[in-house]
Fold these 2 entries.
Entry 1:
Amino acid sequence: MNDTLNLLARRRSAPPPIMKGPAPTRDEVAQMLAIAARVPDHGKLAPWRFIVFEGEARARAGALCAEVFRAQNPQAGEERLAAEQARFSRAPLVVAVVSRAAPHVKIPLWEQEMSAGAVCMNLTVAAVAMGYRTAWLTEWIAYDRDMLDRLGLEAHEKIAGYIHIGRVEGEIEDRARPDVAALTQWF
Ligand SMILES: Cc1cc2nc3c(=O)[nH]c(=O)nc-3n(C[C@H](O)[C@H](O)[C@H](O)COP(=O)(O)O)c2cc1C
């Protein structure tokens, strides 16, 4: 297998809590995002955008998580609030891929949203090819309107994924993979 196939055949996610720095450099991030944006995109709409959380910005975003969580769960204990404060700090870098899909005369919403999924996967593969490990997460912060407002998402925008990126030493045990033959029909 060549390097590309080998990467794709072996890639697997890593849990953010075991991710270490250093974070990708600004140049590396720019390269990752350029590759991430190179996806099939019916109508050339670029129906997605990025929000990058790095360094102290992760703590600022975490403070928003804790604030929203506390407002909605007044009984929340200090431990839970500390976990919310740390939500964006588990990995050295988090990139939110935001779907900007909107009604269009020709291009269905579904196709625009799938393009955002492709962006997430391209970003994942680019980061892994650069020596990092990743986790594509959504969690409650992808669906809570108060949180999305605080992150500056417009009403029609959605989080396709928070791609967590960092360094992990050693191998990570794989998960069971689907039986592809059982899922494949040769028509
Ligand atoms: C859109 C999307 C959202 C996901 N959100 C979560 C999540 O919030 N929490 C989680 O543990 N896994 C989540 N996952 C699953 C992981 O990203 C990942 O697929 C899985 O942990 C292992 O798969 P892999 O090793 O092939 O990457 C999500 C996957 C997708 C596609």
Entry 2:
Amino acid sequence: MSAEKRNAGYRAAEEVEDGMVVGLGTGSTVFFAMERLGKRIAEDRLSIAGVPTSYQAAIRARRYGIPLTSLDEYPELDIAIDGADQVDPALCLIKGRGAALLREKCVCDAAQRAVIVVDGTKMVEALNAPVPVEVLPFAVEAVSRRLAALGADPVLREAVKKDGPVVTDNGNFILDCSFGTIADPGRLETAIASIPGTLECGLFSAYTEKITVIVGEEKGCSVVSLH
Ligand SMILES: O=C(CO)[C@H](O)[C@H](O)COP(=O)(O)O
């Protein structure tokens, strides 16, 4: 599995050109892209700045020698590189296993292009994984009821190595919501977004035109886009 992830990440790093400002996603696959970018900075004098989507991404980027900046400094990014949990044939995504979906969506929205790095197990005919929803703790019960009315059975994500719920980098909770097979991701995303107290959900259905998916294979990778 890590060979596939490495191949996808390394290939994504080749999409980055000198002078670019790069959104840096969260997760094990995108870290390979960061590792490669760090190498290009050190060996090829690549000059870039990264906008990290989480504390974890920021820590990794620093370790690899990638200079960091912010979305305030650069509200428009040249490119974002990120992972995903599922990708459907229309290039709609489910993200958020790492609970970084809110900043990841801000960065994806701000980027001219989004390069999504996955292994082949993430490519599905229809999205059916639980959708993470970032929720204001104040409203968690009310939001939970509204999500249940949409057909989910929301589960408050529990932390590992900490008692109680996961608290995101933004101070919020995560509800993991299984909807079964999602027939219309855009419609569901809009319905979830309309619930007061919901910050974001892990459905990414509005960026299909600017997304390129790099699917890592045992040897090499394949590239999927709608254009
Ligand atoms: O959305 C994410 C974090 O919130 C990740 O990008 C997604 O979960 C993929 O992670 P990995 O590359 O480790 O499989």
